[in-house]
Amino acid sequence: MDIVLSGIRPTGQLHLGNYFGALRNFVRMQHDAKCYFFIADYHALTTHDDPTRLHENVRTVLAEYLAAGIDPDVATVYVQSDVPQVTELSLLLGMHAYVGELERTASFKDKVRKNPSNVNAGLLTYPVLMAADILLHRATHVPVGKDQEQHLELTRVFARRFNNMYGVEYFPESQPYNFGADLVKIPGLDGTGKMGKSENNGIFLADSDEAIRKKVMRAVTDSGPTEPDSPLSEGVANIFTIMQAVSAPDTVAFFREQYARCEIRYGDLKKQLAEDIIKAIAPIRERIEAIKGDEAYLRRVVSEGAEKARASASQTVADVREIMGIRPF
Ligand code: TYM
Protein backbone atom coordinates (compact mmCIF):
# COMPACT_ATOMS: atom_id res chain seq x y z
CA MET A 1 0.00 0.00 0.00
CA ASP A 2 1.19 3.51 -0.78
CA ILE A 3 2.29 5.55 2.19
CA VAL A 4 1.68 9.26 1.84
CA LEU A 5 3.24 11.95 4.01
CA SER A 6 3.39 15.70 3.87
CA GLY A 7 3.66 18.70 6.14
CA ILE A 8 3.28 22.45 6.22
CA ARG A 9 5.23 24.90 8.38
CA PRO A 10 3.09 26.88 10.83
CA THR A 11 4.30 30.29 9.74
CA GLY A 12 0.90 31.93 9.26
CA GLN A 13 -2.42 31.40 7.56
CA LEU A 14 -2.43 29.06 4.57
CA HIS A 15 -2.64 30.63 1.12
CA LEU A 16 -3.70 29.46 -2.32
CA GLY A 17 -0.19 28.12 -3.01
CA ASN A 18 -0.33 25.88 0.05
CA TYR A 19 -3.82 24.80 -0.91
CA PHE A 20 -3.36 24.00 -4.59
CA GLY A 21 0.24 22.83 -4.20
CA ALA A 22 -0.37 20.61 -1.20
CA LEU A 23 -3.48 20.63 0.98
CA ARG A 24 -6.04 19.93 -1.73
CA ASN A 25 -4.06 16.85 -2.69
CA PHE A 26 -3.85 15.71 0.93
CA VAL A 27 -7.63 15.64 1.01
CA ARG A 28 -7.86 13.85 -2.33
CA MET A 29 -5.36 11.17 -1.33
CA GLN A 30 -6.55 10.35 2.16
CA HIS A 31 -8.95 7.56 1.22
CA ASP A 32 -6.62 5.76 -1.17
CA ALA A 33 -3.45 5.37 0.88
CA LYS A 34 -2.10 5.32 4.39
CA CYS A 35 -1.66 9.04 5.03
CA TYR A 36 0.34 11.10 7.51
CA PHE A 37 -0.18 14.86 7.52
CA PHE A 38 1.69 16.91 10.06
CA ILE A 39 2.49 20.47 11.10
CA ALA A 40 6.21 21.17 10.82
CA ASP A 41 6.77 23.27 13.93
CA TYR A 42 10.45 22.33 14.34
CA HIS A 43 11.06 23.54 10.80
CA ALA A 44 9.37 26.84 11.61
CA LEU A 45 11.96 27.46 14.33
CA THR A 46 14.70 27.97 11.74
CA THR A 47 13.36 31.46 11.13
CA HIS A 48 12.94 32.29 14.85
CA ASP A 49 9.24 32.95 15.12
CA ASP A 50 7.82 34.57 18.22
CA PRO A 51 6.93 31.68 20.62
CA THR A 52 3.34 32.79 21.26
CA ARG A 53 2.70 33.32 17.58
CA LEU A 54 4.26 29.96 16.70
CA HIS A 55 1.86 28.13 18.99
CA GLU A 56 -1.10 30.08 17.63
CA ASN A 57 0.01 29.28 14.07
CA VAL A 58 0.08 25.55 14.84
CA ARG A 59 -3.59 25.84 15.85
CA THR A 60 -4.36 27.81 12.71
CA VAL A 61 -2.79 25.28 10.36
CA LEU A 62 -4.41 22.40 12.23
CA ALA A 63 -7.85 24.06 11.95
CA GLU A 64 -7.23 24.79 8.26
CA TYR A 65 -6.24 21.17 7.58
CA LEU A 66 -9.49 20.00 9.11
CA ALA A 67 -11.58 22.73 7.51
CA ALA A 68 -10.18 21.78 4.09
CA GLY A 69 -11.53 18.27 4.60
CA ILE A 70 -8.76 16.14 6.13
CA ASP A 71 -10.53 13.47 8.14
CA PRO A 72 -8.48 12.63 11.25
CA ASP A 73 -10.31 9.31 11.56
CA VAL A 74 -8.87 8.31 8.19
CA ALA A 75 -5.51 10.11 7.99
CA THR A 76 -3.00 10.50 10.81
CA VAL A 77 -2.77 14.20 11.67
CA TYR A 78 -0.06 15.28 14.10
CA VAL A 79 2.30 18.00 15.21
CA GLN A 80 5.95 17.27 14.36
CA SER A 81 7.26 18.04 17.86
CA ASP A 82 4.80 15.55 19.38
CA VAL A 83 6.79 12.79 17.71
CA PRO A 84 10.31 13.24 19.09
CA GLN A 85 11.57 10.14 17.25
CA VAL A 86 11.95 12.42 14.23
CA THR A 87 14.83 14.21 15.94
CA GLU A 88 16.71 10.96 16.51
CA LEU A 89 16.17 9.86 12.93
CA SER A 90 17.34 13.27 11.78
CA LEU A 91 20.55 12.88 13.78
CA LEU A 92 21.13 9.40 12.36
CA LEU A 93 20.44 10.46 8.76
CA GLY A 94 22.68 13.48 9.28
CA MET A 95 25.62 11.06 9.29
CA HIS A 96 24.85 10.44 5.62
CA ALA A 97 24.30 14.04 4.55
CA TYR A 98 27.32 15.94 3.30
CA VAL A 99 27.78 19.58 4.24
CA GLY A 100 28.57 20.53 0.63
CA GLU A 101 25.29 19.24 -0.71
CA LEU A 102 23.37 20.96 2.08
CA GLU A 103 25.14 24.24 1.36
CA ARG A 104 24.18 23.96 -2.30
CA THR A 105 20.44 23.60 -1.59
CA ALA A 106 18.54 26.45 -3.26
CA SER A 107 16.35 27.09 -0.20
CA PHE A 108 19.45 27.42 2.02
CA LYS A 109 21.17 29.79 -0.40
CA ASP A 110 17.98 31.82 -0.61
CA LYS A 111 17.72 32.13 3.20
CA VAL A 112 21.40 33.12 3.44
CA ARG A 113 20.88 35.79 0.81
CA LYS A 114 17.74 37.18 2.42
CA ASN A 115 18.96 37.12 6.01
CA PRO A 116 22.75 36.80 6.32
CA SER A 117 22.60 37.52 10.06
CA ASN A 118 20.68 34.29 10.78
CA VAL A 119 22.54 31.50 9.03
CA ASN A 120 21.93 28.97 11.80
CA ALA A 121 22.81 25.26 11.72
CA GLY A 122 19.10 24.38 11.70
CA LEU A 123 18.75 26.10 8.34
CA LEU A 124 21.64 24.08 6.93
CA THR A 125 20.26 20.77 8.19
CA TYR A 126 16.66 21.63 7.26
CA PRO A 127 16.61 19.04 4.43
CA VAL A 128 17.89 16.34 6.80
CA LEU A 129 15.02 16.93 9.23
CA MET A 130 12.65 16.95 6.27
CA ALA A 131 14.06 13.63 5.05
CA ALA A 132 13.58 12.29 8.57
CA ASP A 133 9.91 13.39 8.48
CA ILE A 134 9.40 11.47 5.28
CA LEU A 135 11.45 8.39 6.05
CA LEU A 136 10.09 8.13 9.59
CA HIS A 137 7.01 6.49 8.07
CA ARG A 138 8.84 5.23 4.99
CA ALA A 139 6.58 7.33 2.78
CA THR A 140 6.43 6.49 -0.91
CA HIS A 141 4.46 9.56 -2.06
CA VAL A 142 4.85 13.15 -0.90
CA PRO A 143 2.26 15.66 -2.16
CA VAL A 144 4.07 19.00 -2.33
CA GLY A 145 4.41 22.07 -4.52
CA LYS A 146 7.21 22.64 -6.99
CA ASP A 147 9.40 24.52 -4.48
CA GLN A 148 9.95 21.32 -2.48
CA GLU A 149 11.28 19.27 -5.39
CA GLN A 150 14.93 19.68 -4.46
CA HIS A 151 14.27 18.67 -0.86
CA LEU A 152 12.65 15.48 -2.12
CA GLU A 153 15.65 14.82 -4.34
CA LEU A 154 17.90 15.06 -1.29
CA THR A 155 15.62 12.74 0.67
CA ARG A 156 16.11 10.12 -2.04
CA VAL A 157 19.87 10.69 -2.02
CA PHE A 158 20.05 10.11 1.75
CA ALA A 159 17.79 7.05 1.54
CA ARG A 160 19.80 5.51 -1.29
CA ARG A 161 23.07 6.22 0.44
CA PHE A 162 21.79 4.60 3.63
CA ASN A 163 20.52 1.52 1.79
CA ASN A 164 23.82 1.15 -0.11
CA MET A 165 26.04 1.69 2.87
CA TYR A 166 24.34 -0.95 5.00
CA GLY A 167 23.36 -3.28 2.17
CA VAL A 168 19.65 -3.09 2.97
CA GLU A 169 16.50 -2.21 1.05
CA TYR A 170 15.03 -0.35 3.98
CA PHE A 171 14.07 3.14 2.87
CA PRO A 172 11.88 3.71 -0.21
CA GLU A 173 12.63 6.30 -2.90
CA SER A 174 10.00 8.84 -1.85
CA GLN A 175 8.52 10.72 -4.80
CA PRO A 176 6.95 14.16 -4.92
CA TYR A 177 3.40 13.67 -6.12
CA ASN A 178 0.67 15.49 -7.98
CA PHE A 179 -1.51 12.81 -9.58
CA GLY A 180 0.86 12.30 -12.50
CA ALA A 181 0.84 16.01 -13.38
CA ASP A 182 3.72 18.45 -12.95
CA LEU A 183 4.17 19.86 -9.47
CA VAL A 184 2.28 23.11 -8.99
CA LYS A 185 3.76 26.55 -8.49
CA ILE A 186 1.11 29.16 -7.73
CA PRO A 187 2.48 32.63 -8.49
CA GLY A 188 1.72 35.83 -6.64
CA LEU A 189 -0.55 38.45 -8.16
CA ASP A 190 2.11 41.12 -7.92
CA GLY A 191 3.67 40.21 -11.24
CA THR A 192 6.67 38.34 -9.86
CA GLY A 193 7.66 35.07 -8.24
CA LYS A 194 5.62 32.59 -6.28
CA MET A 195 2.87 33.17 -3.79
CA GLY A 196 4.45 32.91 -0.37
CA LYS A 197 3.86 33.66 3.28
CA SER A 198 6.92 35.86 3.47
CA GLU A 199 6.41 37.49 0.06
CA ASN A 200 3.36 39.34 1.39
CA ASN A 201 1.36 38.53 -1.72
CA GLY A 202 -0.92 35.78 -0.45
CA ILE A 203 -4.59 35.15 -0.96
CA PHE A 204 -5.46 33.26 2.20
CA LEU A 205 -7.99 30.50 2.74
CA ALA A 206 -9.41 32.64 5.54
CA ASP A 207 -9.76 35.82 3.42
CA SER A 208 -13.25 37.31 3.08
CA ASP A 209 -14.93 37.44 -0.33
CA GLU A 210 -14.31 41.19 -0.38
CA ALA A 211 -10.62 40.81 0.45
CA ILE A 212 -10.24 38.24 -2.33
CA ARG A 213 -11.96 40.49 -4.86
CA LYS A 214 -9.77 43.43 -3.84
CA LYS A 215 -6.53 41.45 -4.08
CA VAL A 216 -7.42 39.98 -7.46
CA MET A 217 -8.57 43.28 -8.92
CA ARG A 218 -5.20 44.79 -7.94
CA ALA A 219 -3.27 42.05 -9.80
CA VAL A 220 -0.53 43.33 -12.09
CA THR A 221 -1.36 43.15 -15.82
CA ASP A 222 -0.22 45.20 -18.84
CA SER A 223 -1.79 47.49 -21.40
CA GLY A 224 -3.25 44.55 -23.33
CA PRO A 225 -2.22 42.55 -26.40
CA THR A 226 -1.84 44.57 -29.57
CA GLU A 227 -1.15 41.71 -31.97
CA PRO A 228 -2.92 38.35 -32.25
CA ASP A 229 -1.23 35.47 -30.42
CA SER A 230 1.32 37.70 -28.70
CA PRO A 231 3.19 36.20 -25.72
CA LEU A 232 1.84 36.79 -22.21
CA SER A 233 3.57 39.24 -19.91
CA GLU A 234 4.53 37.77 -16.53
CA GLY A 235 1.62 39.35 -14.63
CA VAL A 236 -0.99 38.11 -17.12
CA ALA A 237 0.64 34.68 -17.32
CA ASN A 238 0.38 34.48 -13.52
CA ILE A 239 -3.34 35.23 -13.63
CA PHE A 240 -3.82 32.40 -16.12
CA THR A 241 -1.73 30.03 -14.00
CA ILE A 242 -3.95 30.63 -10.98
CA MET A 243 -7.00 30.36 -13.19
CA GLN A 244 -5.83 26.96 -14.36
CA ALA A 245 -5.82 25.78 -10.74
CA VAL A 246 -9.23 27.16 -9.76
CA SER A 247 -11.43 27.60 -12.83
CA ALA A 248 -13.14 25.19 -15.21
CA PRO A 249 -11.02 24.33 -18.29
CA ASP A 250 -13.51 25.96 -20.68
CA THR A 251 -13.36 29.20 -18.70
CA VAL A 252 -9.58 29.26 -19.10
CA ALA A 253 -9.91 28.39 -22.79
CA PHE A 254 -12.46 31.18 -23.29
CA PHE A 255 -10.19 33.89 -21.88
CA ARG A 256 -7.11 32.50 -23.65
CA GLU A 257 -8.97 32.77 -26.91
CA GLN A 258 -10.06 36.30 -26.14
CA TYR A 259 -6.44 37.15 -25.40
CA ALA A 260 -5.23 35.56 -28.64
CA ARG A 261 -7.77 37.65 -30.55
CA CYS A 262 -6.80 40.85 -28.69
CA GLU A 263 -10.35 41.11 -27.38
CA ILE A 264 -9.62 40.42 -23.76
CA ARG A 265 -10.76 42.76 -21.01
CA TYR A 266 -8.56 42.23 -17.98
CA GLY A 267 -11.32 43.53 -15.70
CA ASP A 268 -13.57 40.66 -16.79
CA LEU A 269 -10.75 38.16 -16.48
CA LYS A 270 -10.04 39.27 -12.92
CA LYS A 271 -13.71 39.31 -11.94
CA GLN A 272 -14.09 35.74 -13.16
CA LEU A 273 -10.93 34.65 -11.37
CA ALA A 274 -12.04 36.25 -8.09
CA GLU A 275 -15.43 34.54 -8.22
CA ASP A 276 -13.84 31.18 -9.00
CA ILE A 277 -11.40 31.53 -6.12
CA ILE A 278 -14.26 32.41 -3.81
CA LYS A 279 -16.25 29.40 -5.00
CA ALA A 280 -13.27 27.12 -4.36
CA ILE A 281 -12.31 28.29 -0.89
CA ALA A 282 -15.28 30.03 0.78
CA PRO A 283 -16.66 26.70 2.12
CA ILE A 284 -13.30 26.10 3.82
CA ARG A 285 -13.25 29.56 5.38
CA GLU A 286 -16.71 29.03 6.76
CA ARG A 287 -15.49 26.00 8.70
CA ILE A 288 -12.16 27.41 9.93
CA GLU A 289 -13.47 29.60 12.77
CA ALA A 290 -15.82 26.98 14.19
CA ILE A 291 -13.08 24.35 14.20
CA LYS A 292 -10.51 26.74 15.64
CA GLY A 293 -12.79 27.46 18.57
CA ASP A 294 -13.36 23.78 19.37
CA GLU A 295 -10.47 23.30 21.75
CA ALA A 296 -11.50 19.80 22.87
CA TYR A 297 -11.74 18.56 19.29
CA LEU A 298 -8.35 19.98 18.32
CA ARG A 299 -6.75 18.46 21.40
CA ARG A 300 -8.26 15.06 20.65
CA VAL A 301 -7.11 15.16 17.02
CA VAL A 302 -3.48 15.95 17.84
CA SER A 303 -3.21 13.55 20.74
CA GLU A 304 -4.68 10.62 18.80
CA GLY A 305 -2.59 11.55 15.77
CA ALA A 306 0.60 11.75 17.82
CA GLU A 307 -0.04 8.34 19.28
CA LYS A 308 -0.48 6.73 15.86
CA ALA A 309 2.52 8.57 14.43
CA ARG A 310 4.73 7.61 17.37
CA ALA A 311 3.90 3.93 16.90
CA SER A 312 5.09 3.98 13.29
CA ALA A 313 8.05 6.24 14.14
CA SER A 314 9.30 4.07 17.02
CA GLN A 315 9.41 1.05 14.77
CA THR A 316 11.47 2.89 12.15
CA VAL A 317 13.92 4.31 14.66
CA ALA A 318 14.36 0.87 16.27
CA ASP A 319 15.06 -0.66 12.84
CA VAL A 320 17.51 2.09 11.87
CA ARG A 321 19.36 1.81 15.19
CA GLU A 322 19.70 -1.92 14.65
CA ILE A 323 20.87 -1.49 11.04
CA MET A 324 23.45 1.13 12.04
CA GLY A 325 24.73 -0.88 14.98
CA ILE A 326 23.30 1.11 17.89
CA ARG A 327 22.33 -1.96 19.89
CA PRO A 328 21.48 -2.58 23.52
CA PHE A 329 23.72 -4.85 25.62
P1 TYM B 1 5.83 25.22 3.32
O1 TYM B 1 5.27 25.34 4.68
O2 TYM B 1 6.67 26.32 2.80
O3 TYM B 1 4.68 24.97 2.27
C1 TYM B 1 3.74 23.94 2.47
C2 TYM B 1 3.33 23.33 1.16
O4 TYM B 1 2.77 24.31 0.30
C3 TYM B 1 3.45 24.28 -0.95
N1 TYM B 1 3.54 25.64 -1.49
C4 TYM B 1 3.23 25.95 -2.75
N2 TYM B 1 2.79 25.19 -3.77
C5 TYM B 1 2.54 25.82 -4.94
N3 TYM B 1 2.70 27.15 -5.12
C6 TYM B 1 3.14 27.94 -4.12
N4 TYM B 1 3.26 29.26 -4.30
C7 TYM B 1 3.43 27.36 -2.86
N5 TYM B 1 3.87 27.83 -1.68
C8 TYM B 1 3.95 26.77 -0.85
C9 TYM B 1 4.83 23.73 -0.64
O5 TYM B 1 5.43 23.18 -1.80
C10 TYM B 1 4.51 22.69 0.40
O6 TYM B 1 4.08 21.49 -0.20
N6 TYM B 1 9.69 22.11 3.89
C11 TYM B 1 8.24 22.17 3.80
C12 TYM B 1 7.54 21.58 5.01
C13 TYM B 1 7.94 20.18 5.31
C14 TYM B 1 7.59 19.02 4.55
C15 TYM B 1 8.20 17.93 5.24
C16 TYM B 1 6.85 18.81 3.39
C17 TYM B 1 8.70 19.79 6.37
N7 TYM B 1 8.85 18.42 6.34
C18 TYM B 1 8.07 16.62 4.77
C19 TYM B 1 6.73 17.50 2.92
C20 TYM B 1 7.33 16.42 3.60
C21 TYM B 1 7.84 23.63 3.67
O7 TYM B 1 8.56 24.49 4.06
O8 TYM B 1 6.62 23.82 3.18
TrEMBL record:
<dbReference type="InterPro" id="IPR001412">
    <property type="entry name" value="aa-tRNA-synth_I_CS"/>
</dbReference>
<feature type="short sequence motif" description="'KMSKS' region">
    <location>
        <begin position="194"/>
        <end position="198"/>
    </location>
</feature>
<dbReference type="InterPro" id="IPR024109">
    <property type="entry name" value="Trp-tRNA-ligase_bac-type"/>
</dbReference>
<dbReference type="InterPro" id="IPR002305">
    <property type="entry name" value="aa-tRNA-synth_Ic"/>
</dbReference>
<dbReference type="InterPro" id="IPR050203">
    <property type="entry name" value="Trp-tRNA_synthetase"/>
</dbReference>
<keyword id="KW-0648">Protein biosynthesis</keyword>
<comment type="similarity">
    <text>Belongs to the class-I aminoacyl-tRNA synthetase family.</text>
</comment>
<protein>
    <recommendedName>
        <fullName>Tryptophan--tRNA ligase</fullName>
        <ecNumber>6.1.1.2</ecNumber>
    </recommendedName>
</protein>
<comment type="function">
    <text>Catalyzes the attachment of tryptophan to tRNA(Trp).</text>
</comment>
<feature type="binding site">
    <location>
        <begin position="145"/>
        <end position="147"/>
    </location>
    <ligand>
        <name>ATP</name>
    </ligand>
</feature>
<keyword id="KW-0963">Cytoplasm</keyword>
<feature type="binding site">
    <location>
        <position position="133"/>
    </location>
    <ligand>
        <name>L-tryptophan</name>
    </ligand>
</feature>
<keyword id="KW-0030">Aminoacyl-tRNA synthetase</keyword>
<comment type="subunit">
    <text>Homodimer.</text>
</comment>
<feature type="binding site">
    <location>
        <begin position="194"/>
        <end position="198"/>
    </location>
    <ligand>
        <name>ATP</name>
    </ligand>
</feature>
<feature type="binding site">
    <location>
        <begin position="17"/>
        <end position="18"/>
    </location>
    <ligand>
        <name>ATP</name>
    </ligand>
</feature>
<dbReference type="Pfam" id="PF00579">
    <property type="entry name" value="tRNA-synt_1b"/>
</dbReference>
<keyword id="KW-0547">Nucleotide-binding</keyword>
<dbReference type="InterPro" id="IPR014729">
    <property type="entry name" value="Rossmann-like_a/b/a_fold"/>
</dbReference>
<feature type="binding site">
    <location>
        <begin position="9"/>
        <end position="11"/>
    </location>
    <ligand>
        <name>ATP</name>
    </ligand>
</feature>
<dbReference type="InterPro" id="IPR002306">
    <property type="entry name" value="Trp-tRNA-ligase"/>
</dbReference>
<keyword id="KW-0067">ATP-binding</keyword>
<feature type="short sequence motif" description="'HIGH' region">
    <location>
        <begin position="10"/>
        <end position="18"/>
    </location>
</feature>
<keyword id="KW-0436">Ligase</keyword>
<feature type="binding site">
    <location>
        <position position="186"/>
    </location>
    <ligand>
        <name>ATP</name>
    </ligand>
</feature>
